[in-house]
Amino acid sequence: MASELAPGFLVAAPSLRDPNFQRSVILLIDHRQDGSLGFVINRPARVSFEGVMDELDLLPPEHQVPDVPVLVGGPVSPNTGWIVFDPTESPISLKTTIEVTNRIRVSASKDLLRELAEAPRPDHHMLVLGYAGWGEGQLDEEIRQGSWIPVDLAEDVVFDTPHDERWQAALQVLGIDPHLIVQPFQDGLF
User: How far apart are CA 122 and CA 110, in angstroms?
Assistant: First the structure.
């Protein structure tokens, strides 16, 4: 049975110091008793979309590759890629996609990746490499410990907010001013 957490955001609490998740926003796709799946949506990867397409030998012939954001989706299976996109703004087909909301779909299809490389308008698309995953009960325990702040999904944060502003924007969905949050000391005293 799915929970009310997904779809939604998980916002890293200021006290979360794990370098994989510090100040991250996770688009939580699925949360069930036996585990959870999501994608970090505010950490740029060190590779371009064109670089990914070249590595996969999917570059379209004599076609300018669009500037699609590539993000580090999480530490699990970093060699896998997922397209996160808004189907209402997308020129790519909806085959082999998972509907998260009316405005968010995800897919791991290479065919759709090739379509995206040839798309005239890549707006409202991102490629995430890897994912964030939790085993049975793990995420619920991390929320109880205060590592994550669950936030209702705001699609404009996913597609219309620059990646470096998404942590603050997701907190503001709850009415939290991130500038007023007490930051833990760097030396671990608090």
Answer: 16
3-state secondary structure of 34: coil
Q: What pTM was computed for the model?
A: 0.89
Neighbouring-strand partners of residue 52: none
Residue 56 inside a domain? The answer is yes
Which residues form the domain of 111?
Answer: 8-180
CATH code of the domain in which 94 resides: 3.40.1740.10
Q: How confident is the model at residue 11 (pLDDT cuts 50, 70, 90)?
A: very high
Can you tell me the distance from the alpha carbon of 95 to that of 111, in angstroms, rounded to the nearest whole number?
A: 10
Query: Which residue type occupies 143?
Result: I
Alpha helices (H) along the chain = 49-55, 110-117, 138-144, 155-159, 166-173
Residue 154 placed within a domain: yes
The two tokens of residue 18 are: 């794990």
Could you give the CA distance from residue 21 to residue 149 in angstroms, rounded to a whole number?
Answer: 12
Residue-wise pLDDT tens digits, 135-184: 999 999 999 999 999 999 999 999 999 999 999 999 999 998 877 765 55
Domain count of the fold of the chain: 1
Task: Please report whether residue 188 resides in a domain.
Answer: no
Query: Average pLDDT of 47-66?
Result: 85
> Which value, to the nearest 10 degrees, does the dihedral of the CA atoms of residues 180, 183, 189, 190 take?
60
Does 185 reside within a domain?
A: no
